[in-house]
Amino acid sequence: MPSSERRRRPSGRITLQEVARSAGVSPITASRALRGERGVAAELVERVKVAAAELGYVPDPAARALASQRGTQVPVLVPLLSNALFVDVIEAVHRELLPHGYQPLIGVTHYDPMEEEQLLRGYLAQRPAGLLLTGFDRTEAARQMVATSGIPCVYLMELTAAPGVHCVGFSQHDAGYAIAQHLLDRGRRRVAFIAAQLDPRTLQRAEGYRHCLRDAGVYDARLELLSPQPSSMRLGGELFEDLVRTRPDVDAIFFCNDDLAQGGLLAALRLGVAVPQQIAVAGFNDLSGSDQMLPPLTTVRTPRRAVGEAGARTLLALLRGDPAVQASTDLGFELVVRGSS
Amino acid sequence: MPSSERRRRPSGRITLQEVARSAGVSPITASRALRGERGVAAELVERVKVAAAELGYVPDPAARALASQRGTQVPVLVPLLSNALFVDVIEAVHRELLPHGYQPLIGVTHYDPMEEEQLLRGYLAQRPAGLLLTGFDRTEAARQMVATSGIPCVYLMELTAAPGVHCVGFSQHDAGYAIAQHLLDRGRRRVAFIAAQLDPRTLQRAEGYRHCLRDAGVYDARLELLSPQPSSMRLGGELFEDLVRTRPDVDAIFFCNDDLAQGGLLAALRLGVAVPQQIAVAGFNDLSGSDQMLPPLTTVRTPRRAVGEAGARTLLALLRGDPAVQASTDLGFELVVRGSS
DNA sequence: CTGAAAGCGCTTACAG
DNA sequence: CTGAAAGCGCTTACAG
Fold it and tell me: Which CATH class is domain B172-301?
């Protein structure tokens, strides 16, 4: 009578032992069969799997982590959750990792390297299976911790050619260059750049913009409006007003993010500035609502879902010990031209 | 020489044993001291804490979970991450739970009870410390699983008076009633309701709206436009156009969510419909950008950060075994009147 | 290809 | 108030 056998077990859960007994093998063999370790007779694998399914066995992650010295958690560190960009990345990561038995852990750094370092310290103590980090801008201590931990790590959103580093993203610089070039191609010559937050990726886009305008011989540092404040529609509107007031000859604006650009577009409506006739406007990221603006916003569609997906897959390959993992995955970007330019 | 003592430990981490030895107590006492269990001499607690700090001891969550049969994870199940509402809730939950050593696990149900049930099954197998669920709309199986698991659970966003149920939120019905009443107070009589997604909370707001309009004797079912599609600015614009075309006598619209309302406002600009002169517009949630619209959007500010915070605190109290936990916490809502009404 | 032994690092009763 | 013993449920070497 199984019920009497189970009487004293506090947890009441089905264990590997019971599965093994039911399948007529040792627990080790059952463990190997269930984990898909090769080198177990096909017939035994089958028997174990049937027994596990019949008993409704669910492996205990804690026991597994303790015995193997390796958890199933995968901390995913992003700067912000209030930017839809990262939410999309995270959703994609979840979708890839969960079915493989890994547990994404969301960490928010608020663009603060110190905060990231602390989060990292805490997560690393839990022996995570892998790590998904945003970009390359972190403290030296954080870098060290990741390196010495030996835990597989994939970097998201930016690219590097550094050896041994796995990254998935696109060239922020080139995307900035491309959108600036588009505005020049439209015949604009006084092309401004409005940015907020000023995180590393924003600054890379700024570099692309500068590079492009210099190549065309029309760069003017006075057309850059950089604010360290967090990005928002409200701020975009304010900066737009500032710029139009102080630089009335501006004929195009590249906003480093769509929320700023949307705010700018609404400010233009309010002020009666004709877009794109008087000023062409472009944003970045193709966030929700940009296609609904008046006029619809020209922008760069960034592959954030793809970044999450490919990042997770790269990590999975690393965890599998796959020798053929691609170190750097460039997912590109897409210029989306709409009515605002 | 400690280095030779440590030679064979695979993990290389500082253990409770070492802390205990260094403090001159038994591991059990060290464990109790570190967990703040009462009944340990103050002097010993001090010694243990100093030793732990000196050695840089970090408890192993896996070992802890295995021994105590109780993990530190707290699954937080929300319908969607693409609605800023839930992102705010999640951020607040993180902020509360993390410092207490609990690990929030984000699960996305996509408004699908089946998906929620599956997620729940997986999470429950991990013996989470607690559970944070959105609303009360779930499968019977899910309900059973939660009940029989005995794991403390707090429900977010909605309220109930059901005994033994802990919930934190506000009355969606009353909020719907209040915004409808506001439009009536503005002298409107043909007040439409536009909704998408049609999740339980949206339907509760619909009830509030109906209730209010019936009380005023001006309810007209033909002024309800309900779409099961996911909420978005684009859809809001489309539904606005539909409504204005088919019901030209409408003089006010209550959109069930701000993204729809923002889309509606932009459609009004496009179509040359004067807001609020011809049609007053109100939204719900006070999402980012609503204050930047043209005109700024009247809406209901919902206490989502407070919901996450209070929800997490309630759970913490439950985990502590606090006998004075409040079962139902009504956080209210705030009418935000702006230019659109 | 399979298994017996040992152990991962902690906490839960149970004593005293 | 403190501790020795046992065990949580797995997996890692090590044999054979």
Answer: alpha beta
Q: B145 — contact with chain A (CB < 8 Å)? A: no
Question: Do B3-59 and B72-170+305-332 come out as alike in CATH topology?
Answer: no
Cα–Cα distance between A159 and A154 in angstroms, integer?
Answer: 11
- Strand D nucleotides within a 7 Å radius of protein CB atoms: 1-5, 7-13
Within 10 A of B157 (CB to CB), how many other CB atoms are there? 27
Q: For residue A4, is pLDDT > 70?
A: no
Contacts of B145 (CB under 8 A, 6+ apart): B117, B120, B121, B124
How many Å is the Cα radius of gyration of chain B? 26
Nearest by CB to B266, which of A61, A125, A294? A294
Of A11, A91, A293, the CB nearest to B266: A293
- How many angstroms separate the CA of B67 from the C1' of D6? 11
Contact B288 A125 (CB under 8 A): no
Q: Which residue in this structure is represented by tokens 């902020």?
A: B95
- Report chain A residues whose CB lies below 8 A from the CB of B69: 10-11
A127/B62 touch (CB, cutoff 8 Å), yes or no: yes
Instruction: Write the DSSP symbol of residue A272.
Output: T
User: Distance from A281 to chain B by nearest Cα, in Å?
Assistant: 18
CA to C1' distance (Å), from B259 to C3: 62
CATH topology of domain A72-170+305-332: Rossmann fold (3.40.50)
The 10s digit of each residue's pLDDT in A260-295 is 999 999 999 999 999 999 999 999 999 999 999 999
Global pTM exceeds 0.70: yes
**Measured torsion, CA atoms of residues B100, B102, B104, B105, in degrees rounded to the nearest 10:** 170
| CB-defined contacts A:B, below 8 A | 102
Nucleotide nearest to B8 (CA to C1'): C7
Q: How many helices (H) and strands (E) does chain B have?
A: 13, 12
CA of B62 to C1' of D6 (A): 19
Residue–nucleotide distance: B233 CA to C6 C1' (Å): 61
- With contact defined as beta carbons under 8 Å apart, do B97 and B74 qualify? yes
What percentage of chain B reaches a pLDDT higher than 70? Answer: 96
Is domain A3-59 annotated with CATH 2.30.40.10?
Answer: no
B66: chain A residues, CB-CB within 8 Å: 60, 62-63, 66
* B7 confidence band (pLDDT: 50, 70, 90): very low
B224 touches chain A (CB under 8 A): no
Sheet with B131-134: strands ordered across: B103-108, B73-78, B131-134, B153-157, B166-169, B328-330
Rounded distance between C-alpha atoms, residue A151 and residue A145, angstroms: 10
Instruction: Inform me whether the C-beta atom of residue A291 falls under 8 Å from chain B C-beta atoms.
Output: yes
d(Cα B66, Cα A180) in Å, to the nearest integer? 56
- Interface contact A218, partner B, CB < 8 A: no
Expressed in angstroms, the distance from the first to the final Cα of chain A is: 77
Measure B21 CA to nearest chain A CA, in Å.
21
Tell me the pLDDT band of A11, cut-offs 50, 70 and 90.
low
Q: What is the pLDDT of residue B11?
A: 57
Task: Dump the DSSP string for A233-267.
Answer: HHHHHHHHHHHHHH-TT--EEEESSHHHHHHHHHH
3-state secondary structure labels for all residues of A77-124:
EECCCCCHHHHHHHHHHHHHHHHHCCEEEEEECCCCHHHHHHHHHHHH
Where in chain B are the domains?
Answer: 3-59, 72-170+305-332, 172-301
B10 touches strand C (CB under 7 A): yes
